[in-house]
Amino acid sequence: MQVNNKLSANFYGLFSGVFWGLSGVLLALLLKDNTLASCFLIPIIIACLNDLISFVYMFFYLLYQKKHQEILSILKNKNYLIITIAAIFGGPMGMSFYILAIKYIGIGYTATISALYPAIGTLISFFLLKDRIHRIGLLGLLLSIICTMILGYSASTQVVSGWIGFLFAFLCALGWGSEVVISSYGMNKNIPSDIAYFIRQLSSSLGYIILIVVFVHSFPSVLHILSDIKLTTLLLTTSLMATISYLFYYRAIESLLPIRAMALNITYSVWAVVFAYLIIDEPISINLLLICTGVSVGSFLTAVNPHNINKLVFFLK
């Protein structure tokens, strides 16, 4: 039973990367609209709508799971504030910078550069949660980081406004790395993963609304999206993919702890490149393909149990 649970948790982590890569490509497709592309702060508005719709999805999902009592108990449990803090790092900070980076350097570069977040998360997790990592896993993590840094340099020198996009992608990684560790700490306080994600989306949506009211003042962009059936459908689909991704991701964090969950989720950089090629015809260069392969291999080495590697080597002999 424990093996099956571990296997399920690893699949949750992997598929969180698949769906996140797909959602990123759909966001890039949304940003191609001429009216939206002309507004500098539209990524923040889209991120707000994305999390707000996701919150609605999660609300009905929890009702379907008959967890209305857990929803009502949110305000009574002080531990839920931990998830709220994580939401600020992952939502208004991480997601906004992620979409801004997509706008400037495209989904392929953004996905791979922002995949630095496990390195940041690992350091925070090591110091705060005492989460250890084996030597093979450390080598895998270093491989992923090095590949990401090479791609980041490539993006900053070959893409127009690349250095701005690189900065946004790095700040996104900082936000996501902090979020995953704080969320894991909160779930260790007996907060179920689906409730944690529901709180995350609620807190993130409120944070975005405050941010928009105070700084953005660009509600015509919202009306433009909602008045266009194609854009609205695309936004709803994007948010659904992101919701599925995060729900799987939080389940993986709950079972595997941050380091291994991040190692599986980081494969979104590869999936994003593949989906970008299939959906929006974004080219795949040999360098990009090799770097993405490096990220995938590094992620696998970080997530896999070293005892299983020894068994595999023995079997191949």
Report what the structure shows.
This protein has 317 residues and is mainly α. The chain is built from 14 helices and no strands. Helix 1 (2-31) crosses helix 12. The chain is globular and about 50 Å long.
- What portion of residues belong to β-strands? under 5%
N to C succession of SSEs? HHHHHHHHHHHHHH
Helix fraction bin: over 70%
Spatial shape: globular
The largest pleated sheet is described as: none
Strand-pairing-aware structural class: mainly alpha
How many beta-strand runs? 0
- List unreliable stretches of 5+ residues: 311-317
**Tally of domains:** 1
Could you tell me the radius of gyration in angstroms? 19 Å
Pfam family, one: EamA
Domain EamA: 9-151, 164-302
Subcellular location: Cell membrane
Protein name: Threonine/homoserine exporter RhtA
